[in-house]
Amino acid sequence: MIDLPLEGPLMDDDLIAEFLAAIPLPALLVDQSERIIAANAEALTLLGQQITGRHFATILRQPQVLDAIEAALRDKRPQQARMLSNDGAQDTTYDVICRYVNGIGAVQGGAVLISFQDVTHMQQAVQMRRDFVANVSHELRTPLTALMGFIETLRGPARDDAAARDRFLSIMEGEAGRMNRLVGDLLSLNRVESEERVRPRERLELNEILRATINSLRPLAEEASVKLELAAPEAAVEITGDSDQLRQVFTNLIENAIKYGGSGGRVDVVLSASDRDPAVRGPAARVQVIDKGPGIAPVHLPRLTERFYRADNHRSRELGGTGLGLAIVKHIINRHRGRLRVESELGQGSVFTVILPR
Ligand SMILES: Nc1ncnc2c1ncn2[C@@H]1O[C@H](COP(=O)(O)OP(=O)(O)OP(=O)(O)O)[C@@H](O)[C@H]1O
Ligand SMILES: [Mg+2]
Questions:
Q1: What DSSP assignment string belongs to 115-175?
Q2: Which ligand number lies closest to the CA of residue 324?
Q3: What's the pLDDT score for residue 315?
């Protein structure tokens, strides 16, 4: 593969291989013959085992990457390019960094050291932030647009119509309430996320927390004609946790069961304790919130805890949901080192199970 004889090389092949092996990123050398003269194990894993000796353009096919390598060979100056790839499981993004090394390679002219930095996670974080801002703006804009429309109507056509005024004001109150809930949920999510690594320390009784939560949701259940019942053991089920946050968890789960599963006519909350639960590998408490409503289609299940995700967008919005409830629930349960399980069958109902270590 080397066409010209080497004249007193500065580095022999073994030394080059040693240096490449010490670079903690996929790295390879392309010399003035435009062939790959060496590659480390990481590069072979990334680009294929048979790349040494081949022309770089047969291995790296993306135009920006080829341009960068060609420019580096020609001008002997640093170059950089983005390479989009796929590792079989997901799309990946690499920064391809080219640096010129004098005095090595077949033609003595030197070679380009090309290393590949995986920036997939950074890209994903940037994308998540963008999505988040877009979602928040969208969620706020809907009620805001409604409010502005009604203000205009109240100033104009409905100015002297007392009945319409009352009706519009009550719709406006609802829309303002939705914005308020959204901002409240966002702040709550932020707080929960920032505390996620702080272990809660309060000793508390789940029986007590569930009783209080259910009592506060009773009016909602009655309004929806839903029979809401708690089944709990006589003995107190004690855990270490944060009682306000756990109330938030059970409030959202039970509220969801009433709002989205209430057509089944009943919602059951079942508390139990066990000495060993495989989900948390030790003694645990389980709380199940069971409804007999329409259930959730399997496609939605894995995404339910994403921010702003709603299984039935229209219905959820109509019921005033922000789609942040389960995202908050998940973070709180993570903070408690617990697990959330969702099982659902269309037409049969849903079971949300919270497993907390005792
Ligand atoms: N028991 C249930 N039955 C059917 N669908 C459900 C049930 N619980 C949740 N969902 C679906 O999951 C979605 C996400 O729930 P989540 O609690 O995160 O948001 P939300 O209730 O819409 O808003 P928020 O809780 O912030 O008021 C809901 O919009 C609903 O479509
Ligand atoms: Mg909810």
A1: EEEE-HHHHHHHHHHHHHHHHHHHHHHHHHHHHHHHHHHHHTTTTT-HHHHHHHHHHHHHH
A2: 1
A3: 73
